[in-house]
Design goal:
Blueprint lengths: L20 H13 L7 H22 L1
Length: about 60
């Protein structure tokens, strides 16, 4: 999950803006836990498409 869609229960602002100490702490925690936390969903889909294309190319050359 990306943190750009999360809303802070403390200040009711998006966590990605980091308005209060709770937002900043959770934003930092999410960045450390997940390598892909800062990427938007379209970027993840594009990376997946490139990975599938590379696997298909390798399978085609192996045959």
């Amino acid at each position: 999950m990306t943190y750009d869609r999360l809303v802070c229960a403390n200040c009711a602002a998006p966590v990605s803006e980091g308005r209060c100490p709770v937002c900043r702490a959770n934003r930092q925690r999410l960045r450390q836990e997940n390598l892909f936390a800062g990427l938007n969903p379209m970027t993840l889909i594009a990376l997946l498409a490139v990975l599938i294309a590379a696997a298909a190319l390798l399978a085609h050359q192996a045959a």
